[in-house]
Amino acid sequence: MSNSKSWFLPLAAALLFSASLTAHAGVADDVAGFKDFGARGPIEGTSEVRAGVPVTVAASGSISEAVSLTDFATPSLPTVVVAQLPQPSVETPLHKLFCVEYARMLSGLNIFGDAKYWWERARNLYARIATPAEQEVMVFATSPRLKKGHVAVVTAIVSKREIRVEQANWQNHGEIDHATPVLDVSAKNDWSQVRVWDMRSQSFGGHVYAIAGFIAKRALLQADKD
Fold it and tell me: What is the pTM of this model?
């Protein structure tokens, strides 16, 4: 028994000393690797987890976050309530309406006769303008399709290229067309040419109409000062 103790104790001490050296070498290697990481940068294409988020090392050495983030980490955008424009619709009145009487009723303009006369008859009475604004009357020029012309009242400006109008008898049935979209298709965005929404196809009609201009109810003198 004494002989076993004599060789066992030196062996145990040697094993402990060896393990200590190995652990010390591992720590030294980790420290050296950390210093070397700062000098050389990470290895391209490797994946790591930082602050609980998976990241990928880009080719340039920069860190790009993975696309899949948790719901908690994804930022939320504020909710913005946008006013909805009324949808185009058709109303059948008790008696057939013409475009001029309906436009006169909505706009308050004291202009009479067929729509083809409105642009000239507004001279020296109301402001005649090239661009649309709410409550102005849009005057269509005469054409083979519109031999008597046409007028409609602007009710909303949607964008630089689109407005909404109220009009009557556009389909020649004496009907009222509510919230009709009108699209400017002129090359210079000067509202000299437009396309009008077609209720049957639920799209803008293929025909292009020439526009004489827009008539505003405000006094001509005030318009000249503007």
Answer: 0.61
